[in-house]
Amino acid sequence: MLKHSSWLVILLAFATLAACNRTPKAFDPASATAAKEQLDVLRDTVDTRWTQMMASDDAKITATSQILNELERTPGADKQQLQQLAAANNRFKKLRYQQLSMQSADIDRYDAAQDSLLGVLRTVVTTNAGASATVQNTFETIGQYDGQVAGYRVQYDRAAKQFNNYLQLHQTELQTLGGKYKQLAPLPLFEIPQ
Q1: Per-block mean pLDDT, blocks of 10 residues, the chain (194 long)
Q2: pTM for the complete prediction?
C-alpha cells in the first residue's frame, strides 16, 4: 500500500504533465501588442546607433581638447588662439543637432563649425615645430573619427528608416495602445529627402 506522501508525489506529477500539455495561447503577429514589441526592438536599435555615433563625436571633441592642451604647453605657442579654439571646441556638445529635432541646416552648421576648427588646428599643428609625436598621433586619431561620421550616419539612417516604415505600416494598431505610442512621429534622417 502506498503511503500518503507517495500519493501526493504521483498527483503532483500528473498535474505537472497536464500543465505541460496545455496548448499555448495563440500569438497574433498583427496585434497591437506584437506591433508594440517589434517597434520597441526597432527603437532600441535606433537608440544604439545614435549612442555609437554620439560616442564617436564625443571622442573626437575630447581628442581635440587634448591636442589643444598639449599645444598650449609648447614654447612659443599662441596661447590666445589656442584658448579661443578650446572655447569653440567646448561648445560643440551644446551646439550639436538633436535626434528628434535635427534638420539639414543644423547638421550642416555643426559640420561646418567642426571642419573649420579642425582646419585651423591642422595649420597650428603643422606649423608648430614644438608639437610632439603625441599631438601628431592624436590628430591622426581625430581624422579617423572624422572619417567614421558618414558610416555612422548611414547606419543610423538605416535603423531610423526601418523604425519609420514600421511605424507607418502599424499606426492603426499602435494608436490603440495609447500613451506614447499614440504620439509617435517618424524620426528625422541625415539623408536629405529627394
Answers
A1: 54 55 51 85 97 97 95 89 97 96 95 96 86 87 93 97 94 84 91 72
A2: 0.80
